[in-house]
């Protein structure tokens, strides 16, 4: 007596089909699961046994062998319970063979025979759809799985007994409907920020070109306030981006009631975050903050307070757009193309370089504090900006005429130009940078002069070009002109604030 059914295994956010082969043979009674299964999968045996008992089914006293094929792909998680139970019921003749063969199932069984939702239902259902199988998951996961669409079957029974009744025609299950789509989120408005025009402009440039951005300034200058207003000026997710973001959220188990949102992710992990929390991994492989921020923003407030090693682990995802997690049983990668926004005080006391507000420990304070952020990480931040403290006069200003809506419209237009090129300006390099960001004669001349006078490194030179390209796009201009180069050069930290600040950070431009 044998049967087979399907389920999925995950490598990062990628779902792969797994065939669940069940065989009942004579010999010493046993219940064996083979096929590179981890501990949670091994525990399936006990849950399946208890769930069967709960619905009045006894596992025959035979040798039960479950093979999860292909055997060389690691299997993690508790979602193998349901397909194992379905395969076993088919082998026992409780379910017709096609109830197993034509379906891909994911679900965790309770001891009472209930079926609980598990992470990864959205990519699982899409895999089933792509392979022409129907999809079965727990009732509470139905709204999420229904987003996979398609005309293949979709069942979301609350318990094993409901599933059996459905296939026996006693109580037919209705197809679940997709969860809600949250279209317009409410954002904090940029209008709330008084003064700080340079910083607001930098935020707009960063949003338009996808540039990484660092704010350096004393406490209370409005750094966190500005960063929180970035998601509002970013364009909503495109259909493909929405799919990618939702897939990662599904794998992380964060899609509550199958609700999707077009809002760009904004993740702000605390500075005590571990490397596993930030980049992914840990006991059970889960996407980290960098992947949850995919297609959106990763905001690191109080940047130097993060553990230096944790910060350096960001370099690889920043470079490649992938978070790679190496494990004894293989390498996994999650997409992680995010925009980094960071904020920091210039020194631990927060007041280095400010007139009248003495930093208690002098230049050394700023130096040691800023040295906690490595040069290579700084190198990947296109826009680095000093923010002055807000003055009482600034705070007394009326709200500015321009708010989030106006800035967002310009950002959207600038992004549309980049969409045609197929690449955000922040990601321009090599050939593409040559092709799209070549300045006109006067611009090139200014850049060369600046390079000589300011001792621009090759990286600094490219950063100026990328930012200048974004400035031209914001204007809707074809070519990068002198005025764009000039503004890009001005978007750098002021040297006058004292060597202690200047030295470890380097400059944009
Ligand atoms: N430019 C500003 N306009 C209006 N309010 C401001 C401004 N800057 C700071 N504030 C006020 O000060 C508070 C602290 O700002 P915050 O962004 O947390 O400062 P930082 O992160 O630079 O230490 C804000 O919640 C806001 O009420
Ligand atoms: Mg702050």
Could you characterize what this model shows?
With 509 residues, the protein is α/β, with parallel strands linked by helices. The protein folds into three domains: 2-167, Ribosomal Protein S5, domain 2 (2-Layer Sandwich), CATH 3.30.230; 190-404, P-loop containing nucleotide triphosphate hydrolases (Rossmann fold, 3-Layer(aba) Sandwich); 428-509, Helicase, Ruva Protein, domain 3. The radius of gyration is 28 Å and the shape is elongated. A hairpin with a 5-residue loop joins strand 6 and strand 7. A five-stranded parallel β-sheet has the order 13-16-19-11-20. Strands 1-2-4-3 form a four-stranded mixed β-sheet. Strands 5-8-9 form a three-stranded parallel β-sheet. The chain binds adenosine-5'-diphosphate and magnesium ion. The site of magnesium ion (MG) has 4 residues, from helix 9.
General form:
elongated
Q: Roughly what fraction of the amino acids lie in strands?
A: 15-25%
The kinds of small molecule bound in this structure are: adenosine-5'-diphosphate, magnesium ion
CATH fold call of the largest domain: Rossmann fold
Trace the largest sheet across and list its strands.
Answer: 13-16-19-11-20
CATH secondary-structure class of the largest domain: Alpha Beta
Characteristic terms for this protein:
elongated, alpha/beta, binds magnesium ion, single chain, Rossmann fold, disordered C terminus, 24 helices, Helicase, Ruva Protein, domain 3, Ribosomal Protein S5, domain 2, 509 residues, binds adenosine-5'-diphosphate, 5-stranded parallel beta sheet
């Amino acid at each position: 007596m044998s049967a087979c059914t399907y389920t999925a295994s995950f490598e990062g956010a990628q779902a792969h089909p797994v065939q669940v082969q069940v065989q009942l043979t004579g010999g010493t009674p046993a219940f064996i699961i083979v096929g590179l299964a981890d501990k949670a999968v091994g525990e399936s045996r006990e849950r399946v046994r208890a769930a069967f008992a709960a619905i009045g089914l006894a596992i025959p006293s035979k040798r039960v062998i479950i093979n999860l094929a292909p055997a060389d792909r690691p299997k993690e998680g508790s979602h193998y319970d349901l397909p194992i139970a379905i395969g076993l019921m088919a082998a026992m003749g409780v379910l017709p063979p096609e109830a197993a063969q034509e379906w891909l199932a994911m679900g965790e069984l309770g001891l009472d025979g209930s079926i609980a939702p598990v992470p990864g239902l959205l990519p699982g259902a899409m895999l089933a759809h792509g392979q022409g199988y129907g999809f079965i998951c727990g009732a509470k996961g139905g709204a999420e799985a229904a987003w996979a669409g398609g005309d293949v079957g979709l069942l979301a029974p609350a318990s094993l007994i409901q599933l059996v009744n459905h296939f026996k025609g006693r109580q037919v299950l209705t197809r679940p409907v997709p969860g809600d789509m949250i279209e317009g989120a409410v954002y904090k408005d940029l209008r709330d920020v008084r003064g700080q025009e340079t910083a607001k402009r930098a935020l707009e440039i960063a949003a338009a070109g996808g540039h990484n951005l660092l704010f350096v300034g004393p406490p209370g200058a409005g750094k966190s306030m500005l960063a929180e207003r970035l998601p509002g000026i970013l364009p909503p997710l495109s259909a493909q981006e929405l799919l990618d973001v939702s897939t990662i959220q599904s794998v992380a188990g964060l899609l509550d009631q199958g609700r999707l949102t077009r809002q760009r992710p904004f993740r702000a992990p605390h500075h005590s975050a571990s490397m596993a929390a930030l980049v992914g991994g840990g006991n059970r492989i889960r996407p980290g903050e960098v992947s949850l921020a995919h297609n959106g923003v990763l905001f690191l407030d109080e940047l130097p307070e993060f553990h230096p090693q944790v910060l350096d682990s960001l370099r690889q995802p920043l470079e490649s757009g992938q978070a790679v997690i190496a494990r004894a049983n293989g390498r996994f990668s999650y997409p992680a193309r995010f925009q980094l926004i960071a904020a920091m005080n210039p020194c631990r006391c927060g007041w280095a370089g400010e007139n009248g507000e003495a930093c208690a420990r002098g230049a050394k304070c700023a130096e040691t504090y800023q040295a906690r952020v490595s040069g290579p990480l700084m190198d990947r931040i296109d826009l680095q900006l000093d923010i002055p403290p807000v003055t009482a006069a600034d705070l007394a200003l009326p709200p500015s005429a321009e708010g989030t809506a106006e800035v967002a419209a310009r950002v959207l237009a600038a992004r549309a130009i980049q969409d045609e090129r197929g690449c955000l300006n922040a990601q321009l390099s090599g050939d593409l940078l040559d092709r799209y960001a070549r300045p006109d004669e006067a611009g090139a001349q200014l850049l060369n002069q600046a390079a000589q006078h300011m001792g621009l490194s090759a990286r600094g030179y490219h950063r100026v070009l990328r930012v200048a390209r974004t400035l031209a796009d914001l204007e809707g201009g074809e070519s990068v002109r002198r005025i764009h180069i000039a503004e890009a050069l001005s978007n750098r930290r002021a040297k006058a604030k004292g060597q202690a600040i200047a030295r470890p950070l380097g400059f944009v431009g």
